[in-house]
């Protein structure tokens, strides 16, 4: 079937990546052509996987949320089965057939008829084999997305970090395989810096999206942190809704102080992650450092924006960088000389 050809799969990955309007896409343009294409394919996999869990069902009707959740679970199960059929289960050798084997992908499509994502798998298999992407990183992302279908509170930071490693650090490790590294991908210094980078990016997302996630029944902050600052989950949610912030009642003012202290604590944690991630820049192949630098600088700038005005996370509007700030960062990383690894520690947000 022509629609499962390798060339069609590569094209579909590019179309999905471009249509997503992600802030990562401009960074891909700073890569050599083959690596840019590989990152678009990898991004298409992550985007499709995330959308299966988070994107509203077009046919969903009011009062039908349970049925919709069941449909999403089934789609994710089919997607996982298709991924295992193409890449092999973790710990098992991958199937021997080539990414250009249309007949093999057609057989997978027949086994999982409800999985439209099979279209992206010929390209994904090609990239995984070409760049020796750790297959476990792709399955870890799937585990994280599946856990979001039935969110449960994280008791402590260890549990929160484990989630971040599944949904963010895993993607970072796959990206590093594409970019190339100056030290082995499994070396301890690289693993430590890569983990810190993924945690920094994801923790920025978590703090920024506290309000939106709570509305969706998710609290990614450790319950132990809430307890440390004297907040119960309902109080935490009420504060995010803005009904206590700035209120005149004594207990409201107390809750507001506790909430502000909780935010400061999370931002200090994020700052540590960013500092610990900086050595990663020097371990990335020089032809990919502009892409990593732009991604890192974008997220660090977003983090600094939250640091300057933490209570913006309680507002309706999502915290973003302005178009001018984004353009400034892109131009800096596109045209100015690459900083040395030592100078990365002195970068500031615009």
Specify the overall morphology: globular
Q: Give the averaged pLDDT, no decimals.
A: 90
From the structure provided, what is the oligomeric state, counting identical versus distinct chains? Answer: single chain
Number of domains: 2
Rg result: 21 Å
CATH A-level architecture of the largest domain? Orthogonal Bundle
What's the CATH topology label of the largest domain?
Farnesyl Diphosphate Synthase
Q: Mind telling me the CATH class of the largest domain? A: Mainly Alpha
Distance between the termini: 50 Å
The beta-strand count equals: 0
Poorly predicted ranges: 59-63, 243-250
Helix and strand sequence: HHHHHHHHHHHHHHHH
The class by helix and strand makeup works out as mainly alpha
- The number of helices is 16
Beta-strand content bin: under 5%
Largest sheet: none
Superfamily (CATH H level) name of the largest domain: Farnesyl Diphosphate Synthase
The level of helicity is 55-70%
Would you write up a description of this structure?
By secondary structure, this protein is an all-alpha fold. It folds into 2 domains: 1-133, no CATH class; 151-350, Orthogonal Bundle (Farnesyl Diphosphate Synthase). It is 65% helix and 0% strand. It contains 16 helices and no strands. It has helices at 6-19, 25-28, 33-54, 65-87, 102-111, 121-131, 135-149, 157-179, 188-208, 210-215, 223-228, 233-240, 250-277, 280-283, 289-308, 323-335. The chain is globular and about 65 Å long. The protein starts with 5 loop residues before the first helix and ends in a 15-residue tail after the last helix. The relative contact order is 0.10. Mean pLDDT is 90; it is low at 59-63 and 243-250.
């Amino acid at each position: 079937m022509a629609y499962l050809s390798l060339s069609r799969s590569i094209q579909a990955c590019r179309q999905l990546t471009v249509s997503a309007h992600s802030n990562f896409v401009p960074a891909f343009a700073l890569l050599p052509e083959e690596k840019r294409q590989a990152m678009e394919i990898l991004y298409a996999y992550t985007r499709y996987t995330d959308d299966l869990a988070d994107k509203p069902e077009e046919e969903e009707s009011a009062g039908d949320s349970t049925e919709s959740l069941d449909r999403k679970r089934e789609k994710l199960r089919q997607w996982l089965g298709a991924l295992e059929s193409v890449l092999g289960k973790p710990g098992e050798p991958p199937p021997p057939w080539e990414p250009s084997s249309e007949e093999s992908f057609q057989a997978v499509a027949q086994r999982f008829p409800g999985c439209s994502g099979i279209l992206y798998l010929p390209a994904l298999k090609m990239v995984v084999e070409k760049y020796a992407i750790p297959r476990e990183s792709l399955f870890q992302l799937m585990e994280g997305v599946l856990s979001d279908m039935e969110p449960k509170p994280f008791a402590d930071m260890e549990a929160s970090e484990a989630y971040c490693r599944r949904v963010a650090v895993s993607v970072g490790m796959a990206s590093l395989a594409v970019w190339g590294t100056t030290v082995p991908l499994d070396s301890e210094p690289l693993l430590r810096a890569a983990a810190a980078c993924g945690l920094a990016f994801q923790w920025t997302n978590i703090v920024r999206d506290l309000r939106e996630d709570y509305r969706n029944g998710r609290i990614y902050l450790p319950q132990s942190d809430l307890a440390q600052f004297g907040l119960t989950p309902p109080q935490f949610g009420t504060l995010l809704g803005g009904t206590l912030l700035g209120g005149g009642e004594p207990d409201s003012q107390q809750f507001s102080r506790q909430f502000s202290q909780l935010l400061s604590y999370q931002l200090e944690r994020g700052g540590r992650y960013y500092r610990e991630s900086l050595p990663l820049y020097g371990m990335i192949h020089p032809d990919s450092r502009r892409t990593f630098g732009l991604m890192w600088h974008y997220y660090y700038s977003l983090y600094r924006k939250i640091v300057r005005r933490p209570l913006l996370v309680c507002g309706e509007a999502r915290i973003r960088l302005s178009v001018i700030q984004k353009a400034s960062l892109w131009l800096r990383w596109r045209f100015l000389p690459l900083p040395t690894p030592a100078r990365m520690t002195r970068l500031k947000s615009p």
